[in-house]
Specification:
Helix content is 27%, strand content 19%. The chain is of the alpha/beta class and 253 residues long. The chain has one domain: Alpha-Beta Barrel (TIM Barrel), CATH 3.20.20. Strand 3 and strand 4 form a beta hairpin. The longest helix has 19 residues. It is globular and about 45 Å long. The termini are close together. The structure holds zinc ion.
Length: 253
């Protein structure tokens, strides 16, 4: 049976978008429990103090470059384009600029190599995949979820498992804990502002599911460390759970 590093049978990965103010509280909790995540940032919106109003009336604000400095240490920083455009109608040159300039900006701002790309909104096609490759990204994540624990095989059409606010998340995580599937991978995608909007902050963790009934709360911390391989350990710049090429190098036959 193949395993993840350390002989772990399963992998757990979170990937959160947009670099918003709630990331401060969220990252503190991840750090407390030794969980490493991927944060997908829009470098130009960070400079512009961009904000928008959530359907529930809450103002969602981006972190400034100053506020983000040091926050993501130990986690992966990935590109989410310069300005979060809908990418279907962009010219080839604008597509390239949105991806490559964001990668360059983030590398300069944080002094790390940016290997990953996460598409904004839900449109994705082969042109974006090719551009991600041309820009030097090691993987590109689309917004469509697989709903499964099977790691993808194409790093430029990478799918996560489920959205944090999906009503089925409780069952999804329970199934993950029970599955015997080889190299099972639980990947959750979200936005930390949802934790405010959906009231998912726990006393000492984060509710992975809507608090429908108390006994079904799942708190995001590695209670099952015997079975979960939590992200990438010592090498935060390689996220094997996102990148099948990297994963292969880490997987033991
Ligand atoms: Zn986004």
């Amino acid at each position: 049976m193949k395993t993840y590093p350390g002989g772990k049978k399963k992998a757990f990965q979170i990937t959160y978008d947009d670099g918003v103010l709630q990331d401060v509280r969220f990252v503190q909790l991840l750090n407390k429990y030794g969980i490493k995540g991927t944060f997908n940032l829009n470098s130009q919106l960070m400079q512009q103090e961009f904000s928008w109003v959530h359907p529930n009336g809450m103002e969602v604000r981006r972190l400034s470059p100053q506020a983000a400095q040091g926050l993501y240490d130990g986690h992966e920083i990935a590109s989410h384009t310069l300005t979060h455009p809908y990418m279907q109608n962009l010219s080839d040159s604008e597509l390239q600029r949105q991806m490559k300039a964001d990668k360059d900006n983030l590398e300069q701002m944080f002094g790390v190599q940016v290997r990953g790309f996460a598409v904004p909104f839900d449109y994705y096609d082969d042109r974006i995949a090719r551009c991600a490759k041309d820009c030097g990204f090691a993987y590109a994540r689309k917004s469509e979820c697989s709903g499964s624990f099977t790691p993808g095989t194409d790093p430029y059409h990478w799918q996560t498992g489920i959205y944090h606010i999906d009503p089925n998340l409780t069952n999804f995580v329970a199934d993950f804990l029970n599955t015997e599937e080889e190299l099972a991978l639980c990947q959750i995608v979200g936005h930390s502002y949802d934790l405010d909007a959906e009231n998912l902050w726990g006393n000492d963790g984060i509710y992975l599911c809507r608090p429908v009934c108390p006994q079904r709360h799942l708190v995001l911390h590695p209670r099952r460390t015997d079975r979960l391989f939590v992200s990438v350990g010592d090498d935060a710049h390689i996220v094997p759970t996102h990148n099948p090429v990297g994963a292969d190098a880490h997987i033991r036959p």
